[in-house]
């Protein structure tokens, strides 16, 4: 059995909650299951962290949805279908996947380029050159 600490916490509503602290992983688990269900640490876990004088959350609690790169990747359902927000056009799924890949690649390049001023200049110059490749295509449509 893991090295763990179990604490019962009662709030103002007199609902007892059981918070388990796994020492090896430095992770708390609460019987309210808020973190497991929606990815937000509950007040009971936060109370335990405060009482232990821990001022920073473990990386375990920083799920992808809370990072600045959360929307950089396309989302797919369990069957591999691309999930999109209210589609306006009737684009093929393969085209949507390619667009999502291109968007992610551009975002990666942008994140690298913005770290120094010359990088942004290089990015702009190359985007202008790249846009010239697509001008004849867009004019013929």
UniProtKB/TrEMBL annotation:
The UniProt keyword set, sorted, is: Metal-binding, Nucleus, Zinc, Zinc-finger
Q: Name one GO biological process term.
A: regulation of DNA-templated transcription
Q: Which residues form the signal peptide?
A: none
Entry's localization field = Nucleus
Is Ribosomal protein among this UniProt entry's keywords? no
Does the record's keyword annotation contain Metal-binding? yes
Name one cellular component (GO) term: nucleus
Picking any one GO molecular function of the record gives:
zinc ion binding
The residue ranges of the Zinc finger PMZ-type domain are: 28-55
State its role.
Putative transcription activator involved in regulating light control of development.
Q: Which family does it belong to?
A: Belongs to the FHY3/FAR1 family.
In its UniProt entry, what is this protein called? Protein FAR1-RELATED SEQUENCE
